[in-house]
Amino acid sequence: MAIQSPKGTKDMLPQESAVWQWIEKVMREEAALAGYLEVRTPVFEHTELFERGVGDTTDIVQKEMYTFLDKGGRSITLKPEGTAGTVRAFVEGKIYAGPLPAKMYYLNAPIFRYENPQSGRLREHHQFGMECFGAKEPTADAELIVSILHVLGRLGLKNLGVSINSIGCPACRPGYHEALKEYLKARYDQLCPLCKGRFEKNPLRALDCKEEQCMALTQGAPSILDHLCGECEGHFAALQALLNTQEVRFQVDPRIVRGLDYYTKTVFEITMRTSRGDLALCGGGRYDGLVQEIGGPAMPGVGFGIGTERIIMELNSQGIPLPEAQASEVFVANLGEEALIPAFGLTQRLRRFGVKADSDHMRRSLKAQLRFADKLGVKMLVFVGGDELARGNVKIKDMATGAENEVGLEEALGYIHERLTGNEEGVRHG
To answer: What's the mean pLDDT in 129-150?
Structure first.
């Protein structure tokens, strides 16, 4: 039996690469416009990083991590989310000693979570994230929300929604925890086992539970927005004002708590309104204590992560036209043995000039070469050989119009480039 890819993983085949590259290009451009620079962190980290940073009451740490002992007996975990590793790199690289805020993004970082594969969820998927360190002002929160909306808007996605909440800070959250525990205590026996286990340490997670009985039980729970301290209340009000100035339509949702323990103050989600209900595309928020938790100085932070596979799924569901991969623009066909070297040479010259070109590597007949070129969907065919080659020329066919022209071998580079790009600049020196 043929070996197959592991359950919950998916190949990105060559014909899909153009879509990924297009999405990556938009992400890079929007991150750069906001002053974010790329960071690349290891695929695996010490398990302690996620236990301390993400939190041992989260679904990720309790149920979803790929954790193993390496040959040295060290506990290693495949990266289950992007922020903790970025913070670790920020601390280890002493970036906090440079100009602040420090803005970093990661692109299509592989993320591993052991969960049942379902629509839009894979055990290995890829994320784009932006993280800002050193800025406590709500302008940083708003900047990130606006940036990801620009990314999704440029990709053509519609029916986007923004939901925001504040989950307070270490000063005001304990009081809310007590109020929430008092509410849940009377309903404790009806909570799911997971929420019972989190009751003492992190009762806030009951608001995020997807079990139907817990969702129903928490409908009347006290709102954290009624328990915010003055600083958190002011921060949240300022964030809303900033989003209003940018005409960002949002709703305040007190039930958004996010699934990671490091969040403080702002949490947000970008959702997609569909016939299946609201689907979460992107999640993020502020984590003002995480840098210090991982061993760095007291340093505010805020960021988000979004899965590329989920974006592609929604692009397809909305029927948005997607770019198609094209291996070559020009195929250089040879008419026999004496044309092999000139055809190969012209192909190489075209590539050096930035033209995607290919030629035969299979000693095919001319008829077979033309069939292959047709499958590639090239824009131009170049015939090398025969009487034309004897005269020092080649024949060039425009596949869109069917027009054929005989051009000198030395002039072919400029002729092809001009017709592909409509630009004669630089051709004379090609």
So the answer is: 98
Least confident of 90-104, 208-222, 244-258, 317-331: 208-222
Domain presence at residue 241: yes
Residue 364 amino acid letter: R
Are 256 and 285 in the same domain?
yes
121-133 per-position pLDDT tens digit? 789 999 999 999 9
pLDDT of 91 strictly over 80: yes
* Last residue within a domain, chosen from 283, 317, 351: 317
Torsion of CA 84, 40, 32, 249, to 10 degrees: -30
Query: How do residues 239-287 score in pLDDT, each as one tens digit?
Result: 999 999 999 999 999 988 876 678 899 999 999 887 777 788 999 999 9
User: Structure pTM?
Assistant: 0.89
* In a shared domain, residues 235 and 346: no
268 lies in the same domain as 348: no
Print the domain residue range for 401. Answer: 330-429
Flag whether 72 is in a domain.
yes
